[in-house]
Write the structure tokens for this entry.
Amino acid sequence: MQQEIVFSKYYGQGNTEGLDYYKKNDQGYTALPRSLEMGAEKVLAEVKESGLRGRGGAGFPCGTKWGFIPKNSEKPKYLVINADESEPGTFKDRAIMAYQPHLMIEGAIIAAMTINAHMIYVYIRGEYVKEAGILDRAIEEAYKAGYLGNNVAGTGYKLDMVVHRGAGAYICGEETALLNSLEGKRGEPRIKPPFFPAAIGLFGCPTVVNNVETLACVPMIVNRGAAWFKQFGPEKNYGMKLFCISGHVNRPGLYERPLGYPMMKLINEDCGGIWKGRKLKAAFPGGSSAPVLTAEQCEVNLDFDSLAKAGSMLGSAGIMVIDDATCMLKVAIRTAHFYQVESCGQCTPCREGTMWLKDLHVRLERGDGKVGDLDLIEDICNNMDGTTICAFGEATAWPLRSMVKKFRTEYEQHVTEKRCPFGTAAH
Ligand SMILES: Cc1cc2nc3c(=O)[nH]c(=O)nc-3n(C[C@H](O)[C@H](O)[C@H](O)COP(=O)(O)O)c2cc1C
């Protein structure tokens, strides 16, 4: 399996975030002049050819998205970088911003010039205080070096970039809630269609929203070409990828591997297996919004299409591993509680459903549940799936429904024994 460490070679080391370091170690700002030589159309064609799929969750082809921006619109165009990274178990964008912010900035400059945008916003979650500071300083360096400002790389092109800090709401990672928040409104998702903000986005203008990691791939694609990028990963799932692993493994952390890397190899070899000599029980491969996989289902490759085929999703590549000493109902309570607290409350099925789901799981786990509660959980999930303005409804329904379906016997045991068979450890 072809692989090359392109992101994480100096993660964890100090003082790597400066412009000098980037230029010396990462061919820093050599892709920008190359993209100018190529021109916007060729850059767009190269990104399309690379097959780069969005790293924010949905895996939508990046070049296709850029191509949606209307060329003949008189309105200003915007590039918005989604640095909200609120999905549980996800911490990859944070590393890019902390250790190589200029990689993302250079990718964003190339993207902005390709779609003819003159303004870039970085929407970063409020909790990323350190990373917001690093980005501010890196952007200042880029202005001073002439990569941003009134005369980008001597071309006369005007391009500005600012960091906007969110207030810590999960929903503001959903791109239309993010745009509302950026406009100073409540962070509530917008009604679809339009399904993309390409025509009507920020301030009603054509907008591309891209994830941090997606944009960090762009300088490499411009410099080394689509063919190089396509060496990594199976068909239609190309590139090196940052995987975040948390939970019950011996060596949790951030691992850079090609898309299509076997999940069990990552867990057993790279992460040193399950901790405390226990066995693997289940895993969420793409943050808590992804349907859970049983231990047997974890024999799968980590890419968009393989995981979709296995009934789950790559999502944000936040892999959360669960050992066999863990009560799945406790996991479900944690999950349901998170979504209850984070629901923006706009849609009734989500606002009410998340609350009922949390209450039902708590009741079941403490031994006060009824057998009918299991069907009720599924019923509530079915009524949330596809009935809300944004995909938050599915992000709640999919994991919770998958847990009750795949671990039904364990749920039933709580009802028949009128207690948690795993004991009363805090959840
Ligand atoms: C509830 C919800 C939360 C999301 N949170 C994030 C997030 O924190 N970061 C992110 O990049 N995308 C997030 N997304 C996906 C974005 O809406 C959007 O698809 C993504 O930023 C597009 O970038 P990409 O095409 O480069 O992946 C979220 C989606 C939903 C429905």
